[in-house]
Amino acid sequence: MAHIIKFVNSWFWWENIWMPANCSWANFEDHNGYVFPKPRELLVTIPYAFGMLALRFFVERCIAAPLAHLMGIKSMKRVRPQKNPTLETFFKKCTKRPSQLEIRGLAKKCNWTVHLVEKWFRRRRNQDIPTLHKKFQEACWRFIFYLTSCIAGIVFLYDKPWLYDIWQVWVNYPFHTLLASQYWYYILQMSFYSSLLLTLGFDTKRKDFKAHVIHHFAALALMFCSWSTNHVRIGTLVMLIHDSADFWLEAAKMFNYARWEKACSFFFVIFSIAFFITRMVFYPFWILRATLVYPLYYTQTFALAYFVFNGPLLILQCLHLYWGYLVFKILKKFIFIKHVKDERSDEEEEDSFSDVEEECTKNGSKNGLSHPLLNNNNH
After folding, report:
1. CB atoms < 10 A from the CB of 362, how many?
2. DSSP string computed for 175-213
3. Residue 310 belongs to what H/E stretch?
4. Which residue has the higher pLDDT, 338 or 283?
5. 3-class secondary structure for 127-173?
6. 181: buried, middle or exposed (CB in 10 Å: 19+, 13-18, 0-12)?
7. Omega into 174 within 30° of 0, i.e. cis?
8. I need a labelling partner for 231 at 20 to 30 A (CA). Which of 135, 173, 271, 314 fits?
9. 249: pLDDT strictly greater than 70
10. Least confident residue range of 22-26, 88-92, 133-137
């Protein structure tokens, strides 16, 4: 097994894949005051990811929850539907939204009224939709992280020449010594995205769930590869561009959940401007230009890493276009309908019928019908 691991490792880190002709891994050995990033240093992101989860738990319980209360978001407990194996089986195996014909058939099968069956499905669907309180807590955590990360990125990069002259990401490569600020910026970002992968099954799921999964994996792959090959300068610029718009969106979500419409609209407009400037202008014409075009001047010998890096970067740009389309749709509704709604979110359904019928079923009968749980056909 050790031999196999060593063989795979040697092929994965083959210099012809990652390095142009004038470079080798020997260039990344610390010497003459130069300190270079090493892949094994990223192992620390695993325990840090769990530390990030602990920090998130603290923020959501001790900061976001009280803030939600102050902003008028109540922590309401969802009413659970009655236990009914017949309806539960139909809900899981057939459809969550039965037609009127199917509802009437289920009502006869369970010896319930149509209204009770409709109410059961509404409540059952609501069980899979996070409450506004939970959504607010998640948005508050992401807002705090993205804002902190953006401020950290500005502090780390404001005096760096490659922030203003993109050519500097290639000058004297690979002899770029690793700075402490770059190390912590990478560890912070990779720990956060690793923690998001750990909570994918528990966080609010939206219509662009698959796009988010692709984004998280692409981001982690890019950070790992750019770190390992000392493309840290361009990596930090990519992270700063993404963080500079995200916290505005999370702020808009928080006010949206609190029904503070004017504040929500204000922050969403700022987010839209920041999004289109950073993701539709700076990213393709600044970052992608530096990774797709500038290497032509840097070296005449291309390594496979050119495609390894630019593939995920182009995937991110495709995701930017997709999310830009969603943002444009929301902006259009905001301008013409004066109402901002997250196109990716599911809405909770209200119970439109009285609970009198349900109480009757619990107490015995309604219109001569016996208790439904005693007469349904369990599967």
Report:
1. 12
2. --PPPHHHHHHHHHHHHHHHHHHHTTTTSPP-TTHHHHH
3. helix 305-337
4. 283
5. HCCCCHHHHHHHHHHHHHHHHHHHHHHHHHHCCCHHHHCHHHHCCCC
6. middle
7. yes
8. 271
9. yes
10. 22-26
